[in-house]
Amino acid sequence: MDWSIQGVIELNCWIGHFPHRWPTGHDAEDCIDGHIACNIRGLVWDLGRSVLTYHSDLPGATCAGFQDESLYPTAQSRAIARVFRERCQLRAALQYGREQACTVYGRLCMNRHYSPGTPHRSAFAQNHPQCLEQLRDGRLDITRLCYAIPEYRQERIAILMEAARFGCEGLCLDFCRQPPAVRYHPAFVQPWRKQTGLDPRELTLSANRDGFLAWSRFRAEAVTALLRELKAELDPLRERYDRAVPVQVRIPNDGLEANLICGFAVEDWCREGLVQEIALSELRWLREYQQWDNEPYLALGRQHGVAVLAKNCLPVQRGGWGGECNPRGVNPWLMAKRALDACEAGAAGVCVYQSDLGVQWPGQIEALAILADPGRLRAFVEDPRVQARYPVTEENRTFGIDNHSQLPGTFLSADEL
User: Fold this and answer.
1) In DSSP terms, which residues pair with 185 in a beta bridge?
2) What phi and psi, each to the nearest 5 degrees, are found at residue 246?
3) List of residues 6+ apart from 348 with CB closer than 8 A
4) What letters, b where the CB count within 10 A reaches 16 and e where it falls short, cover 182-216?
5) Does the model's pTM come out above 0.85?
6) DSSP single-letter state for residue 170
7) Splitting the chain (417 residues) into consecutive groups of 10 residues, what average pLDDT does each group show?
C-alpha cells in the first residue's frame, strides 16, 4: 500500500508566529527545507482565501501585500505583507520544490471572505454584494459568497486553473475554512420554493428531517456544479500536458449526512469522478454531529478509486497570534498514534494541517519525521519510553483535531444553519 504524508503550509504562519523570521529572505525555500528535514515532501501550498497569496495574473485579483498600507498596522502584519509583495512565493515554491523532488499542490480556501475593511477581503468579495450569502433570518453573511451564482464559481475556478497552469501538481479545495458552504441566498430559496412550494427557511433537522435533508441536497448541487465546471476546464489541460493534476477536497469527517448539510454531496463527487483525493479533518462545529469516523470515506475511496488522507494532525494555534506559538495541549505521541491508526485502516496517508508550525517545534519534529515510514511510526507509538514522555492528559487528549474547531458549548446547531 502506498503511504504518503502531506504538509499543508501557510507561509504567513511560518513567518508570522516567529519574529526572527520577519526580515524577509528565502522564505519559501526555508519552509520547504524544514519540511524535507521532517521527511515531508508532499507540500500543499497556500493560494489564499479571499485575497491571494501569490502574484496572480488574473484581472481584478487582490494579492496579499499590495493593499493600502493602512491595513497593516503592526510590525507583524507589515512583515507578512512584505513577504508576499517582494516575490511570488508560489512560483518560488514550485521551482524549489521541483529541484528538491517534492510534490507541490495549490490549496485554495473555498469560501472564506472575512469582513470589509480588513486586508483579508478581496475586491471581488467587496464589489459583489449580490453574491453575499444570507442567513436563515435574511441577514447577510458577509464572510461567504453564494455558489449558486455562476460568476462566483468562475472566480474560484479561475484561481485554481491559474495555479494548475503555473505548475501545481494537484489542487486542494479546502472546504474546512469555514463550513457551511451554502446557506439561504435567494438563488437557492426561490427555485426551491417554485419546485416544492415550501419555504426552506421553515425547515429544520429536528422538526422535519427528510425535508431539511432534501433541501440540503438541493443546495449542495451548486458546489457539485463548481466541481463539474472545474473538471471541464481542467481535463483539456491534463490531456494537453499529460499531467494528472488530482483534485483534492478537504472536508470534515463528521459523516456524509453532516457533509451534505454543509453543502458537500461527497458520494456524488466520487461517483462522477470529480475528485481524486479526500483529505479529512476532525473539525468539531456542528452540535448534532459529534462523531468522527474515517471508514465511510475509506469505503467510498475503495469503491471509486479515490485516495483518502486521514485526520489532520495539527499544532494548536489558538492564542498564538501574538508572535509566539502556543504549545499548550500538544502531544506528539497522540499525533503519531492517529497516523498509525489511519495507516492500519487503509488510508493513503495523513495530511498535516499547518505543518509550517509543526516542523519548527521540538518534540513535534521528532514525531513528524517518522510519519512517512510505517515501521518507524509503529515503533515510536509502541515504545513505552515515548508513551511515558508524552502522557495523555485532559489538556492534550484532543490534540490532532482541527484547530478551527469550536469549543464545547459553542457548537452550531443544524437548525441554525
Assistant:
1) none
2) -65, 145
3) 1, 2, 3, 4, 277, 301, 307, 308, 309
4) bbbbebbbeebeeeeeeebbebbbeeeeebbbebb
5) yes
6) E
7) 91 89 91 97 98 97 94 92 96 98 98 94 97 96 97 98 98 94 97 96 95 98 98 98 98 97 98 98 92 96 97 64 57 93 96 92 90 97 96 86 82 87
Residue found under cell 521551482 = 95
Indicate the SS3 state at residue 306.
Answer: coil
Asked if the bond preceding 180 is cis, omega within 30° of 0, the reply is: yes
d(Cα 153, Cα 94) in Å, to the nearest integer? Answer: 26
Element (H, E) at 349: strand 349-353
- E strand or H helix that includes residue 191: helix 186-196
Q: How far is CA 409 from CA 205, 252, 281, in A?
A: 19, 19, 20
Closest CA to 395 of 329, 338, 319: 329
Architecture in CATH for domain 4-111+160-181+242-416: Alpha-Beta Barrel (3.20)
As a residue count, the chain comes to: 417
CA dihedral angle for residue 75, residue 78, residue 82, residue 84, rounded to 10 degrees: 120
Burial class (CB in 10 A: 0-12, 13-18, 19+), 158: middle
Do residues 223 and 147 touch, judged by C-beta distance below 8 A?
yes
Question: What's the confidence (pLDDT) of residue 320?
Answer: 47
Residue whose cell numbers read 528538491: 100
Distance CA 217, CA 192 (A): 11
Task: Give the span between the Cα atoms of 283 and 290, in whole angstroms.
Answer: 9
The phi and psi torsions of 312 (rounded to 5 degrees) equal -70, 145
Calculate the dihedral angle through the C-alpha atoms of 340, 346, 350, 351, rounding to the nearest 10 degrees. Answer: -160
Sequence-separated (6 or more) residues with CB below 8 Å from residue 74: none
State the residue for C-alpha cell 466541481.
Answer: 227
Determine the Cα angle at 108 with ends 103 and 109, to 5°.
Answer: 135
Q: Among 162, 163, 101, 155, which Cα is nearest to 131's?
A: 155
DSSP code of residue 286: B
